[in-house]
Design a protein that fits this description.
mainly beta, about 40% strand
């Protein structure tokens, strides 16, 4: 939460100032949560004193800034309709990426298939006065990688 204020008065003279607490933009909140989950999320378990303690004693106690979770997420690698998980079998992946879209992560270490597929794209587009664009259709063969 952050404090936002607005001035009221003749020509913005700020004779009266109104302030309120506001949430940051949704995109910023999402980015912070994603970053914290990807790098620093720590699982905690309840104890008899009703305090959260680390599941692994090697972790330091959490702070108010940490993202803490109590239950592990479902395994998104395998098909599990009970939890609404479709799995990653057959999903397209990026062979060269080390990020979440990369075949190594997305395919959960199961490997991937490589196929050659024909792609039809618009190409040699030209603008005609006035007012449309005319393109040709180009065919090319690309490698497509999908999870096993």
């Amino acid at each position: 939460m952050r404090v936002e204020c607005k001035c009221h008065g003749v020509s913005g003279s700020c004779e009266v100032k109104t302030c309120w607490k506001a949430m940051p933009p949704f995109r910023k909140v999402g980015n912070v949560l994603k970053e914290k989950f990807g790098q620093w999320a720590v699982r905690r378990i309840g104890s008899s004193t009703k305090a959260l303690v680390p599941k692994n004693s090697q972790f330091k106690p959490h702070t108010d800034e940490d993202l803490v979770y109590l239950e592990p997420s479902p395994d998104f690698c395998d098909h599990d309709l009970r939890n609404g998980v479709l799995g990653t079998h057959g999903r397209a992946c990026n062979k060269t990426s080390k990020a979440i879209d990369g075949c190594e992560l997305m395919c959960c270490g199961r490997g991937f298939h490589t196929d050659e597929v024909e792609v039809v794209e618009r190409c040699s587009c030209k603008f005609h006065w006035c007012c449309f664009v005319k393109c040709k259709q180009c065919h090319r063969v690309v490698e497509m990688h999908t999870c096993r």
